[in-house]
Amino acid sequence: MNGADALQLPPKGRPDYVSDPIRSSDRLVSPDSQAVRPHQIVASAALVFALLPIVNWIRGGHSAPWYSDRLAEWLWGTAIAAGLGLVIAILGRRMSFRPLVHMEVWATSAREHPHRTGIVLATIALVGYSIAAKVLYSGVALHLDEIAQLIQARIFADGQLYRDVAQYPEFFSLQHIVEADGKWFSQFPPGWPLMMTPFVLLGVGWLSGPVWTSLSVLVFWGIARHVTATAAQALAAVLLFMAAPFVVFMGSSHMNHVGALFWFLCAIYALIRLQQAAATNVRWSLLLGLSLGALATVRPLDAAAAALPAGIWILWRAVHNRARWSDVVSSGAALLLPMAALGWYNTITAGTPFTFAYTLQWGSSHGLGFHAAPWGSAHTVARGVELINLYFLRLQSYLFESPVPSLVFPAGALILTRHLRAIDRYLLAFLSLLLAAYFSYWHDGFYLGPRFVYLLVPGFVLWSVMLPGAVATVMSRRMKERPAGLTRWAASTVTVCVVMAAFVNTPARGSVYRNGLISSRANSETLLAGLNPEKTLIFVRETWGAQLMARLWRFDVGRDFAELAYSRSDACALDRRLVEIERTGLSGEAARQALVPLLVDSLRLVRSPYSPDDSERLLPGAQYSSGCIDRIGEDRQGTALMAPIIAQSGWRVPIARDLGPRNALLLSLYPSHDIYLLRSKGAETGAPLELLAVSRDSVRALGHGLPWR
Hints:
Blueprint: H1 3-6, H2 38-51, H3 54-57, H4 67-91, H5 98-112, H6 114-137, H7 144-157, E1 163-164, E2 177-180, E3 183-186, H8 191-201, H9 208-227, H10 231-243, H11 245-251, H12 257-276, H13 282-298, H14 300-320, H15 325-350, H16 357-362, H17 381-398, H18 408-416, H19 422-439, H20 457-464, H21 467-478, H22 484-514, H23 525-529, E4 536-540, H24 544-554, H25 559-567, H26 571-584, H27 588-595, E5 606-607, E6 617-618, H28 626-637, H29 642-649, E7 655-657, H30 664-667, E8 674-680, E9 689-694, H31 696-702
Helix pairs in contact: 2-18, 4-22, 5-10, 6-9, 7-8, 7-29, 9-10, 9-12, 10-20, 12-13, 12-14, 13-14, 13-15, 14-15, 14-19, 18-20, 18-21, 24-25, 24-26
């Protein structure tokens, strides 16, 4: 029995009875039964939920102000695709669909030579993703999450688990970097930084995403070969997965979802092979456990959603077949290896095996549940509904960039398909658990699409390629002869959708990414290349707001309270209060209490109209001191972001944050170093960086700002 046959339904007319829950329900099932199945009801309800702007109907929370425009795009796009498809079908009614014939030939050849095909597909994917990484993201980490994890990869590349906290940490503190017990490390789990480390050592950290995503394509090809009914379906599935815009854009980045996808696909492949094996198979059970454990080191919550249904199935089989207990033992042992490594890393950095760095950084409110968020409004059930609805609404566009809402294809297949394969049941269980988890999580995971549900892409792709066969089955059931014209129209419409996605919508989305987060792209490598690391100290001129935040972190008030105090205080009033706290030496709870009175006027605050940094807040009518006016003037002269510079260059040259009057503190630590100021040439977006030499005597004499010579 080959892999495809192992997961197919029995011949029509023969009742299906097996005692394996991942293969079928434990009861007699008539293939000709007309009763509506539960998955069809759920898929129908989910599609409606994914098309309606429920988030806009709930007051006081998240919203989708773009929904009306998106709805118009879907309506017009669907009409255009169907209309052009009809025209093409009419014009081509006397023509044979030769591309489809060739597709079947290519697919058969690909399935007969799976290893060669997989290597070719992965190579093509690697080239495409590498080009995207350079063109769209300039080959650098742009998002704060990417930057923090790339910095951790640099720490690993240096042979360390963490760096020591500096004597004056406010000069070196970064967002998403934990400072605890004298240790300086990323708040994220270590799995993805470790996966990036070899590329960082080779000086090509930007290739991490493309390489691991191309390997995901290779694994997905193995999955498609074993679960699809025909060779054409298998080839269509891997091509759709490889070219899906969500995969291309995310897979070319430094986001840890890339690593999570690879391990999740490895787990699915191992589960399929384990289910197909006639007897216990240690090789696949080891791969299953290892993959799920590795996934936990990258994204623990996603790993829990993936492991629970797999674990239940393995245990269920073992209970009913003693020979299968070896699968339980081997997969469990393999799972414990990366989990033990994760616990060891957590112990070294965060203090205990079960304490993650982001909990250490933000407190228990960072975790799941309906409670106060680390900053901002409390997470409630209503907000959970809003977030899930937002994720689905965004997937309608970001998944395939089709003129037709993207989820229509996988949901339509599930609605029309009466009998689910083993992989479908597992993926539906995973989908349910993943959505339940993020329903109870407060943060809106949006970057390059609804990233928290990125691991749903393999399931959506496999279901989407089922749609033509599901439609054909329904048509043949209801009609004596399948109408050729309707078949041509459907094929032509899908073709139009693919063409519009490839040549209109996807390039438009790529243009947005190519022109986004410009400040994080500033290349400091050339400026720093000729400097002597033993004799150079660079101050980076960040915005006044970034300086205020770093000073808040110094007082050990908690990152969550620091975010709250910064976003709900007048910038100048906050600056003055920080000067008082610095003078009196307060920290911890005493410093928090000193900052609380500033929050009284939070409802009256507006975005500062004077500073280029729109995160700074202004209390209307407040009188600004000359020092505050100077800080705004410095912002207008030009600023830079310190975190991307460190992520790009590491610690080749000592780099510190410009903190005005406090800069003199570092001069004693670097007594003979040349001092430089790094900033942009003006406040305009995309302005190039400049490196200005600074007089040490001027720093000592003036005690504020950094005059340059």
